[in-house]
Amino acid sequence: MPGQIIHDVKRTGAKKLIVCCDGTWMDSDNGNNRTPSNVTRLARAIKPEDEHDHPQIVYYQAGIGTGLGLFAQVAGGGTGLGFSENVREAYAFLANNYYKAEDSALDRNGDETDSIFLIGFSRGAYTARSLGGLVGQLGLLRKENMQWFYDIFEDWQNAGNPDYKPRFWTNWSRWNVDVQGGKPHSISSNPNDIAHVNDYLEDYRKKLLALQLTQEADISAIGVFDTVGALGVPVSPFVKKIFKLPAFLHKYMWVDTALDNHVKNAFQALALDEHRAPFYPSVWERPDRCQTNLKQVWFAGAHSSIGGAYPDIGQANITLAWMMDQLSGDELKRANNHKWHPKHWLHFDPNFIRDQKKLNDDWQKRHYAPANASKEAKVKKIRNWAMGAIYNSLTFPHVLAGSRTRRPGRTHPVTIFDYETQDRLLWNTNERIHSSVRIRINHSGNEFESNPRDCIPRKIGDFLVQGGFKLFHMLLGRTAKPYYHPQTHGPLTDWTLRDGFKYHDDYAFNTDERPSGQVPFWEYVGKDPLMKRGNPIMKEDELGTHEMMLLEEYGETMADYVIGSNSGKKSVDDHPHVKRHGVYISSGKESHEVRSL
Questions:
Q1: Residue 53: left if φ>0, alpha if ψ -120 to 50, beta else—which one?
Q2: Distance CA 477, CA 486 (A)
Q3: Is the separation of the CB atoms in 468 and 424 below 8 Å?
Q4: pTM for the whole thing?
Q5: How far is CA 462 from CA 197, 341, 449, 469, 531, in A?
Q6: Residue closest to 40 by CA, chosen among 235, 219, 314, 225
Q7: What are 457-473's pLDDT values in tens digits?
Q8: Which of 105, 279, 308, 537 is placed for a possible disulfide with 316 were both Cys, Cβ 3.0 to 4.6 Å?
Q9: Which Pfam family, any one, appears in the UniProt record (predicted)?
Q10: Nearest to residue 300, comparing CAs of 315, 313, 311?
Q11: Residue 42 · residue 125 · CB < 8 Å
Q12: Tens digit of pLDDT for each residue in 361-372?
């Protein structure tokens, strides 16, 4: 009846809360016509509901450096200012919308409790991981207690700072005594001792939970593209020089981006060919007792090739499809695994990735063919799978900060005190190489190309560098075309591709490309002594459903070859190189029991 108030409305089921944190200077809502990042595209690809009527609610957050006015954009993008605000806003969204069933007996299957997903790129990836760390370390505030969030956030952010005086327990105790007639509370752990900061934060978390100010919340999945910020938020060299700032802001700020058991799944797409020193990647390491399902995969391309934002999105489409497969639980779903439940995974528009391929085909026809070219000539300019343009990110002013080659499988841990620990490598990282890297190498894909959107000084610099490269090779009697070969003084130096083919020294013009039945993988053959305790094998990641959809849009010839060679019949476990190293890899779980060489 009109005007009637309805009481006791029953919830229809759990919803999914999805926080999407974009990269620096990335804002899909600012009205400018620019290439959207993969974070933006994922947000657009997520359906309003999944197949089982669970609402999928997306919170999109523009990247650092997208504020109004030139100063806000330069200061934010150049120094990372605004990071704390972004974390607070995303946390507030979760706290204000998250529902957890109080009676576990009525929620045996978890059908009432909401699910949380965190997605990010670049500094937005650092924001997403920091948000996950905050939820894990302190819990999720109940919405009626959100007035205390700022004090709690400041305490968390400054944990271990010897010059900081905690705010929350003093302010809350005064309120609890004066207003509520209760008792004051505090915690015994030292908030200023950086060596025992984990003990302090654990006491903090337990006390908040006991007072029912917070509730525990799991993160169903964190999916990130090329996280930067392991030492804090990187500062651009131009801004650093003008304002005399350090290379990283908040480098002693206690922001935990590590994994623990409250994060159920963690996925990261990493850029092989990013070589700006301040953009060295933050690779996840899974602690010994952590049960998080972790997968990190390396792709050909620079930072924005993997996270999107470059005009040719051929490479970004590959990482986009890969992330869609990870966040949808595709591997479990295809295996009919009983652990797959729709509430714990995202549901995407199945046509979205195909539409992105069509958009890029149109761009390539317009930019790689002359304006007066025939329709047939323009179609021939559409590049094949894994052959999209890779741009050199080491342009002015980034070149002032220097170059640093990434080292898949050989990343050192970063600590608050030493920056990098040189006596060991990260362990339990589950790093893999994507099949598109192998295809780009074997099919003579291009090295770095000029970005058509670069300014004139950058174009001149690129022209001089590439011209010098071509002249050098011509004097040596070599081809002037810079082919993609990351094994030569690049990120895959000392790694050898094992895919059943005898020769990989040439660029595979005449290589027999019939599927050999060998599941490809990469073997470390260098002399780094730390690799004796590391994992000398990186498996090639198997393609999923959305990746297959994208691949098949390129035609049967490429699809048949990639699918046949990517998931061959011969088990990688049986390969003599794998047996020699004592590394046992299967399609589902990877064991890290490694014997000395």
A1: left
A2: 21
A3: no
A4: 0.85
A5: 47, 49, 8, 10, 36
A6: 225
A7: 555 655 555 555 556 55
A8: 308
A9: T6SS_Tle1-like_cat
A10: 315
A11: no
A12: 999 999 999 999
